[in-house]
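#help-structures
NK: newbie question, is this the right format to request a structure? protein is Regulator of G-protein signaling 20
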Amino acid sequence: MSRHETSPTTVQPASNHRPNACCFCWCCCCSCSWNEDRERAWRASRETKLETIPNCEACSKPTTEEVRGWAQSFDKLMKSPAGRNVFREFLRTEYSEENMLFWLACEELKTECNKHTIDEKARTIYEDYISILSPKEVSLDSRVREVINRKMQEPSSHTFDDAQLQIYTLMHRDSYPRFLNSAIYKSLLQNVSRSSSES
């Protein structure tokens, strides 16, 4: 839990229904009929400290083997766009979605080659996730913060590598075990198992 959880300015009531932002993926932004169990689990946690961000990664419906594989290793979960979407939905219920958003932003930054774009994206990441004034600030130790502050004088696509690793480790050790025991993961596993046995 972060210190932001109790802030009245960052708690937003969720809308009465999920945004149907796309029609090609099964992920948390859709209201797909096969996803009814996860819809009910989502409604059980209607408040989020971040504004709902409907733009999930585009992905296809995962196979039973893929969903089972997420329980074998955190790396498998994080390498799968579908896995990241489901894990992000779970993090939202724990008021820690910013960890995944920061990790994704760092991954995107690493793909940039244009110096001007790198500068812009690095500053946006800093303002959104590193600044102590941000409602989406991630939890980093002072050593990593000092490294980032030095690197921000001349940002590169790897400015946040130490911070990204720290947040990845935090999600792995802290959130991932709870995710595997969550209703979100268990109902998804049930749904994909049922779908594959019916087909």
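mod (FA): yep, format's fine, and the tokens are attached above. The first helix runs from residue 36 to 43.
NK: thank you!
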